[in-house]
Structures are given as C-alpha cells and as structure tokens.
Design a protein that fits this description.
By secondary structure, this protein is an all-alpha fold. The chain contains five helices and no strands.
Amino acid sequence: MSDSLKPPGGFGSWLEYAIATMDTKQLHLESIDEASPWGRIVQSDEMREAARTELRVMGETVNAELLAALKEADKECCDLCWTKCAVECPAHIRRLALIKKAEGKA
C-alpha cells in the first residue's frame, strides 16, 4: 500500500471513497426488471449502505482477530517471563499498548 497517495478529503480510506462514488445506475435499472436478483427495486443509497456495512463488518472481524492474536502473544510472553516482563520487556509493553488501542482504551 502506498503511503504517498492519500484518499480524497472527507474520506478515511480509498475503500470509503470507492463506496461513496460507486456506479449503481446499472444495478438500479436491473432491479426494476421482474428478474431482479433482489425481487424488488433497489435504490442506490441501499447499495452503498450494504457496501459500507460489509466494509465495517470486515474491519470489525479483522480487529477482533488481531486483538485475539495480541492477547495470546501477550499471554505467552507473560507465561515465559512472568511479572518482570511488563517492566523490562519492550515487546510486551508495545503489545499492551496495541491491545489498549484495539479495545479503544488508548
């Protein structure tokens, strides 16, 4: 991923931008047809909201998996070096900071 090309203003990511600007006209027209895969007319805003929901769920899933991995690594570290770890181990201190951040406590 390139750090040099930031998403347009007002968007936190290129995926957010892509969802906000995605072309939904053809899908909307297809939804008017009796053979619509949705069985009803679907508006552009509904399509974008469905895409935003998918993106949010993917982010939550990745965050939960990362948090679980960090906690497991933290537990293994503690099991290996006991209580002195939190004071002396830089890796342990970094993991604790990442866990707090992932939990929204930082």
